[in-house]
Amino acid sequence: MDIAFRPHHFLCALCYKGNGYSPAFVANFDMIMKVLRATNGDQVSINIVKETDSICEPCPNRAGSRCQTEDKIRVLDHAHAAALNWKPETRISWGEAKTRIAEQLTLDKFHVICSTCSWKKYGICEGVLKAFLPPLQS
What number is the average pLDDT over the span 113-120? Predict the structure, then answer.
């Protein structure tokens, strides 16, 4: 499976709990996470892209290679790329991505880079990150 992520989708994947915009979106995200959570999931290579990606494929907000809320999504992508040093059109393994998140993200940074995310208010990501991040970074 060839996987591509926009910069902000690395945290979305790490924190994913089975919620989404539509049944097709959830089924697709479930399939991606099954691959990433498999025994060899940390070796899976992910291409970092600037526009819609593997997670976006069945999203009802998708409009071709862009999102209907592209301006908002670009703000998220830019913030995540800067905070976690994601470079567009490069590849990184899922294991390397998780290591980078653990080493470079703090809860304070999370609150800044995800401040405009409509999912943040549910507290799912914060809960996952509190358990995932090293205690000194929380």
Answer: 95
Per-residue model confidence as pLDDT tens digits over 19-51: 999 999 999 999 999 999 999 999 999 999 999
Q: CB neighbours (10 Å) of residue 94? A: 23
Long-range contacts of 78-81 (CB under 8 A, 24+ apart): 78/7, 79/8, 79/112, 79/113, 79/114, 80/7, 80/8, 80/10, 80/11, 80/113, 81/7
What pairs with residue 59 in β-bridges?
none
Count of domains observed in the chain: 1
Give the structural domain span for 19: 3-137
Give CA–CA dist 94/89, Å, rounded: 15
